[in-house]
Amino acid sequence: MAEFEALVPELARHLVASIPKEGRYLLSIAGVPASGKTTFSHIIKDATNQLYGSEICVILPMDGFHYYRSQLDAMPNPEEAHKRRGAPYTFDSHRLLATLKDIRAKEEVFAPTFDHALKDPEENACHIRANHKIVIAEGIYLMLSNTPEGENSDWEQVRAQFDERWFVDTDLEVAQRRLVKRHMLTLGLNEAEATERANSNDRVNSIYILKHLDRPNVSKLIPNNQERS
């Protein structure tokens, strides 16, 4: 985190200056798996609220829009769908898009988060209130562009909902090493199993993100290549 912590005060001031007189300011923070985007989003949210002096900023996690495991079971190839959970098609991008539009149009919005213990979304756990004038959406697929025709078409419309887009720029190999450690810690896998999981799913998703990243519309690249112990 030290690599970009120096940017936080400047970015928080920028967000406070961006608060609209009417409506909301929507910011997306994206990055490959294990880029540090979730941690960074919370750091920015807390710094912005502290600077403003009240809770003006809230986070909308894209992970809440995972399809339920029961929905994966109903897919044409459920075994592959479970194995590839985290791929674009395992998220309800249509619902995410509708939620972002509601955030624009309504004072109060309830949205899901993700319960890692249950391994499924938790409905209505994210409460966006009238005082939340800045909404930070964080997730890996928030900046996709030029995706194959007919594939994940909602993602490009999702990208278009944001006033500003930040990308946490992390070396792919650094992110992969973090993922192996994460899978060993959270899933109880040995190193070989964790490496296989990171390579067969997370790395595939990371390459897809980088291939279809809408770089001209990324307003800020946030470096985060520090190795974690």
Structure, described:
With 229 residues, the protein is α/β, with parallel strands linked by helices. The protein has one domain (2-172, 215-223): P-loop containing nucleotide triphosphate hydrolases (Rossmann fold, 3-Layer(aba) Sandwich), CATH 3.40.50. Helices cover 43% and strands 18% of the residues. The strands form two sheets. A five-stranded parallel β-sheet has the order 2-5-1-6-7, with helices on one face. A hairpin with a 4-residue loop joins strand 3 and strand 4.
CATH class membership: Alpha Beta
Based on Cα principal axes, name the global outline.
globular
Query: Could you give the order of strands across the largest sheet?
Result: 2-5-1-6-7
Tell me the count of domains: 1
Report the uncertain regions: none
CATH topology call: Rossmann fold
Question: Any idea what the CATH architecture is?
Answer: 3-Layer(aba) Sandwich
Class derived from helix and strand content: alpha/beta
Tell me the span between the first and last alpha carbons. Answer: 12 Å
Short description:
This protein has helices at 2-5, 8-17, 37-52, 69-73, 78-83, 93-105, 153-159, 172-187, 191-211; strands spanning 25-30, 57-61, 109-115, 120-128, 134-138, 164-169, 220-223.
Task: Give the helices and strands, then pairings.
Elements: H1 2-5, H2 8-17, E1 25-30, H3 37-52, E2 57-61, H4 69-73, H5 78-83, H6 93-105, E3 109-115, E4 120-128, E5 134-138, H7 153-159, E6 164-169, H8 172-187, H9 191-211, E7 220-223
Parallel strand pairs: 1-5, 1-6, 2-5, 6-7
Antiparallel strand pairs: 3-4
